[in-house]
Write a structure and sequence with these properties.
A: alpha/beta; six-stranded mixed beta sheet; 7 helices; 22% strand; B: alpha/beta; Rossmann fold
Chain lengths: 198, 529
């Protein structure tokens, strides 16, 4: 089995934490993994993306070929759409609906939502709100990971939770709990179909 | 017992070096190479063994420090981004002449497609120029193993080795299985001390030896386990795949590549292997990340019987990094069906952080210069280069580390007034100090601004070499004390800042303005501690 994932967002939003947790879970499950990241200049409020590839057999390329991503997981709705040429025809888009507006010509959010709704498989959720309601306002990225975990396939949600525990362990019990709560809230919302655009 | 962990290519190089018995890493931060040194700085073995890992002022001082370690018989690693090779070129070329005593590995991380750089130069040319062997890993495991072996190889052949990474190799993670750490070398001096004194009489002898050795390096490359020639069932074409390009090739053939493939990860380019490939097929596709170095060496000028495909004939894009898709097209395979790009999406360029001191400095500078229509602002490499973009539009040039100070005085000598330069504190100590001395010596009519955020900001907040001593350095170089002005870039200070800048413009000599406020990113990190 193989899963190709594009993680998207704006520099500073926390996509690399998502990648780190999936990576930790994958390593624990003895999966092959490659994860290309963007460092440097773009991290200053620019668009950032990470190509994350998980597989039960060896992976060659660090980059996902166009048309091959099984999932786009995005912390920002316009950033989710930026990588459509990489998305497989029946691939999933799991995205936050809260826009991150730091440019003057940011498109109308209605248009973004319309375009998202046209895709075959979408989970669009306000993960900022979900994380807030779960009492973990700083863990929107974990709520998004939770929402994606239901369709990820190659790693069970339980494995990802173990990843969260491992990665946040050194920050203390409280941080671990806040992140787990956000993760579970995201997963529940996604399963309930609340956020599905169609 | 083998230990498995997820590592960036950069980190795999770092771990390989530590396990090879490293005694010192010498580096200046630069994307995509920074994480090599940071990994070593944070590693327990570094503390345990007292391995040198403090940042150097620039790539040249780094290379020289490492050369001293090698002279002493110990093992040293030098790390930099590709353009750092230009800064350390004098020392790098010199190191080919001295040779290595203790293992000396120079890691250059190239940035094709210029994700975070000003050009696309290919460091393999430097190695060929200096007659130094190159290792170019194709995956993270290889990066670990190659670095370990590169130190052994450097000592065996008495030559520094260039480790070449590109962005995707440097900044991509994979599982790496590692071994035990070898002890450090004991101090032992070079066997041939004459070689380390490059007087012409000595250098001539050494040069002839190096030319001979370079042939031996090529034989080594032919026998290297990192290079291989695999036959294929379809001989209509053969492929030469260098470094990471090998992965993009194999990605397009899940069941194995049908064509004969020469995988190259160690140079000098193994010509015999290429001839063997040419014996299997008369059409050869060259896939290499960066500039068409191998391709050019195969094409030459005179016609050959082999048909060479690559960047020079348009089969592969002439510039930019490779990808599985570019390689797929070069292989004439059908594109994978996908979604159309969204028409709603707009670019989101990087920007200076909200509240950043560079912003406030540029705002005050812009307001002052409104009254001076002839003014030009020469800037430099760092976060503050983003001052070029809307809404600031504050700078007119950015070339290379330190260029601002040099260019401002050249422009001033030519009659441009006011000629203003802007660089950061780390760029100042990297390459601005010598330019400042030139300005002082020619009494240039310039206003040289140091936007001091107390760190090396763009690469993520590494220590900056002159922190706390910027004014003292300027004074020591000879700038008049009353024309070294320190301002705090905050909106409430705009008037005071403008006055200081205006007064120094009206002074017809060398002025330095130090605009100092800590980087918000490091400030946040310090607050957490």
């Amino acid at each position: 089995m193989k899963k190709d994932i594009i993680l998207a967002g704006v520099g500073g939003q926390g996509i690399l934490s998502i990648a780190t947790i999936i990576g930790s879970a994958a390593l624990d499950q003895n999966l092959h993994l490659k994860q290309a990241e963007v460092h440097g200049m773009s991290q200053r409020g620019g668009d950032v993306q990470s190509h994350l590839r998980l597989s039960s057999y060896p992976i060659h390329s660090d980059l996902i070929p166009r048309g091959c991503a099984d999932l786009i997981i995005s912390l920002e709705p316009m950033e989710a759409l930026r990588y459509l040429p990489w998305l497989a025809q029946e691939g999933w888009v799991i995205t936050n609906t809260t826009p991150f507006v730091n440019i003057p010509n940011y498109p109308e959010t209605g248009r973004l939502h319309e375009e998202l709704a046209k895709l075959p498989n979408v989970i669009a959720l306000d993960v900022d709100e979900i994380a807030r309601q779960a009492g973990s306002p700083r863990s929107a990225n974990m709520a998004l990971l939770g929402a994606a975990s239901g369709v990820l396939g190659i790693l069970e949600p339980e494995r990802l939770k173990e990843g969260i525990r491992r990665i946040f362990a050194r920050k203390g019990e409280e941080t671990v709990d806040a992140n787990i709560k956000a993760f579970e809230a995201g997963l529940r919302k996604a399963i309930s179909g609340y956020g599905t655009c169609r | 017992m083998a230990h498995k962990e997820l590592l960036l290519g950069d980190e795999a190089v770092a771990l390989g070096a530590l396990h090879a018995g490293l005694s010192g890493v010498y580096a200046y931060p630069g994307t995509p190479s920074t994480e090599i040194t940071e990994f070593i700085q944070a590693h327990p073995l570094t503390r345990e063994r007292g391995i040198h890992s403090a940042w150097s002022c620039n790539e040249k001082t780094a290379m020289e420090g490492a050369l001293g370690v090698s002279y002493a018989g110990k093992r040293a690693l030098v790390c930099m981004k590709h353009v750092g090779m230009n800064v350390c070129a004098d020392a790098f070329m010199g190191s080919a002449m001295t040779g290595a005593n203790g293992g000396l590995v120079v890691t250059a991380c190239d940035d094709p497609s210029m994700h975070s750089s000003q050009n696309e130069q290919d460091s393999r040319f430097y190695a060929r120029f200096a007659m130094i062997p190159v290792f170019e890993p194709s995956n993270q495991q290889e990066a670990y193993e190659m670095t370990r072996e590169a130190f052994d190889y450097s000592e065996k052949r008495g030559i520094p080795v260039l480790m070449r990474l590109t962005t995707r190799m440097a900044h991509s993670r994979a599982v790496v299985s590692s071994g035990e750490a070898r002890p450090e070398n004991e101090v032992h001096l070079p066997e041939n001390p004459r070689q380390w004194v490059t007087l012409p009489a000595n250098a001539r002898i050494r040069n002839r030896q190096l030319i001979k050795d370079y042939d031996a390096f090529e034989v080594d490359a032919e026998e290297s386990r990192f290079n291989s020639l695999a036959d294929g069932c379809d001989r209509r074409m053969g492929v030469i795949a260098c470094g990471i390009a090998y992965n993009y090739l194999m990605e397009n053939f899940p069941d194995g590549c049908p064509y004969p493939v020469l995988k190259v990860s160690q140079y000098p380019f193994p010509r015999k292997m290429a001839l063997a490939l040419a014996g299997m097929t008369d059409t050869i596709l060259v896939l290499e990340e960066g500039q068409p170095m191998v391709e050019e060496s195969l094409r030459g000028v005179f016609p050959t019987s082999a048909r060479i495909l690559g960047r020079l004939d348009g089969t592969v894009t002439r510039d930019g990094e490779l990808s599985p898709d570019i390689v797929r097209k070069a292989l004439s395979l059908d594109p994978i069906p996908s979604h159309e790009p969204s028409e709603t999406v707009v670019p989101r360029p990087p920007a200076l952080c909200q509240g950043c001191g560079h912003r406030d400095f540029y705002t005050a500078l812009n307001r002052t210069l409104e009254k001076y229509p002839g003014s030009r602002v020469f800037s430099d490499i760092g976060c503050y280069t983003l001052g070029f973009l809307a809404p600031l539009h504050a700078i007119h040039t950015c070339v290379e580390m330190g260029a601002s100070f040099g260019m401002a005085q050249g422009a001033a000598h030519s009659g441009i007034w006011p000629a203003v330069a802007v660089l950061g504190d780390s760029t100042f100590t990297h390459s601005g100090m010598t330019g400042l001395l030139d300005a002082v010596n020619s009494n240039a009519d310039v206003v040289l601004c140091i936007s001091d955020n107390l760190t090396t900001g763009m690469t993520g907040g590494q220590d900056s070499a002159g922190t706390g001593r910027i004014e003292a350095i300027c004074e020591g170089i000879g700038v008049a004390k009353e024309h070294i002005r320190t301002i705090i870039p905050l909106p409430k200070n705009y008037e005071e800042m403008e006055r200081a800048i205006r007064e120094e413009i009206e002074y017809h000599g060398v002025s330095v303005i130090v605009s100092r406020r800590e980087c918000l990113q490091t400030l946040k990190r310090h607050a957490k501690k």
